[in-house]
Amino acid sequence: MLPKTCPAALAALLAGACSAPGAAETAPPIADILVTANRDAPAPDAGGDTAALLDAHPGVSLYTGGGASALPVIHGLNDERVNVLVNGMRTTSACANHMNPALSYLPANQVGGIEVLAGVAPVSLGGDSLGGTIAVDSPALRYAERDAPLVSGALAGGYRSVSDGLRGSLEALLATKVASLEYTGSIERAHSYDDGRGDRVRDTLFKTENHAFAFGVKQGTHSFTLRAAHQSIPYQGFVNQYMDMVGNESNSVNGEYAGAFGWGELEARAYWQEVGHEMGFFTHEKTGTMPMETYGVDVGYSLKAQLPIAERHVLRLGHEYHRFTLEDKWAPVPGSMMMGPNTFVNINDGERDRYALFAEAESKWNAQWTTLLGLRLDVVETDAGRVQAYSPAAMVGGMMMGMPNPDAAAATAFNARDRSRSDANFDLTAQLRYEPGATARYELAYARKSRAPNLYERYAWGLGTMAMTMNGWFGDLNGYVGDPDLQPETAHTVSASFRWHDAARRRWLLDVTPYYTRVEDYIDVDTIGTYHPLGNLGVTLGLLRFANHGAELHGLDVAGQLKLWNDARYGEGRLKTTFGYVDGERTDGGNLYHQMPVDTKLALEQRLGAFRNAFEVRIVGAKDDVDTRRSELATDAYTLMNVRTSYTWQKLTVDFSITNLADEFYRLPLGGVDYADWKANGGVGGLYGVPGPGRSFNVGLGLKF
Asked: All domains of the chain, ordered by start, with CATH?
């Protein structure tokens, strides 16, 4: 405990509302997930991107996307290699650039909880993925505790100076003891943000609108919840892509039943989501003319049963089905010689069906030893229909040009081949936990995980430079083409976890997790050509085909916390820290793309009555290990500082923060290429990375009633 002479100035700089992984007061069961975000303690600078809430978790990093569409990475495994669940639904990006990933459909200010299981995930938490599980959920429905109906609501709003960003939300609840009805709505608008030099980072503006209704009933040990949601994103800039989002309309319905019986517990879910998505250009910050439209539908269900077997053993059984269909077509551009006269059909009648069965046994043999064994089968069937180029083989824009048309030739070859594929993927997990006493816990885990290729990896077919550069979710400006003969990825992961803490688990904790992953048939790329973006002969980028290769990744996650003081004058103070390191390479040579450099976070936190305060420091190392096949850009090391404070008075909460306190200029290690700025400057000189946001003053207000 610190003496009472601890300076008051230090206490004023500390932060609350900052959650750190590993902070649970009691040890969870071996199959549990640690909650890393909580709706009751939002960060005042939380923007529209729910993925940003994951940044506090060791081993998790983010590919830069639009303002509401970052792509999550766990232990160097990105995007669809991560099992992402939103209110229990497994949905798919309906976009050649993955501008609408699963996490983009639930805004940050409507999140009830985020759960992350990095590395080895039990088979009951999902398959068809390699890198772990992220589950994002809305708040659980509330019911009245008395005979009188429960009526409540909340209003919230916020402002971020770095992007002149505004957000607002409304909640309303009407509930009895057995039924509950809730509405949540939110809207957010942000201009393009400024970097640490005060320069505008072009094409980072966005606007989102979300509405959701939830209805639930419960009776004894049984409950049913039905959720319906609508999202509208009229525009969202993508600084590191050729195209922007000019419309994204989504509707979803999601029903869940949970019940307890004498023989065990049953959970059933069914869901449907449709997405109409359009890419194009909408701002003077990045101009152009080219419409691209996609329409995707996800539909699925799951059944899970938990059966107690004797006193110390639990058996979990489950079945899942998920179907995704996709149409991706590019309408002709009037007056264009290259983009017409026909519609370019990128994906036609795309289908991806997944059938799954799993069994999992958890056994607590005694007070010290616990095991978890699981086996899972995922059968994935994919197919796609016939396609067409903008114009026939010897024609461009309807005119005989006497030159080869690579897209027309590629369409002919694609249509002539068999495109139906079926993969049977087996997953296996084995975990062992040993708790020798009240101050330590050790875990050893192995997993064999598999993922089948997505529709774009298999069926993107265009071989013209323009067509290839329209496919790809990597922010690197390279061009990509698929391969129907791609094999599923299979990852073998070994990890260990060492946790030490005080007996009460309230004063200090240290969690150290090294891991190693070897991936067979990792879907990377082969170079099949090159091109010069914007005609700049001094810049050469790749035309790449998705291809199977071997890969290895290894790394280390560290999380810790220490109570520094606890007294009446200065409240409670804690030091929290996380550290993440990952390295990924192809077994035939070369680095894997977008591996996060060393990332260290420190937070000095204080709780004093109604105040929650914090001072945070983030130290990111230089990114030198880059993927030369993709011409990946190196980035320099940087240090960021944030201060936060929050005060709650009765039902009113006021949040204030300053992020990037020193107005540091830095480039995002996973940000890709700043194409919008480079194009606006005429494509002169070499490429450079996307800068991060500069200093921002952020305020948030919340009122419950």
From this structure: 17-135 (2.170.130.10), 136-704 (2.40.170.20)
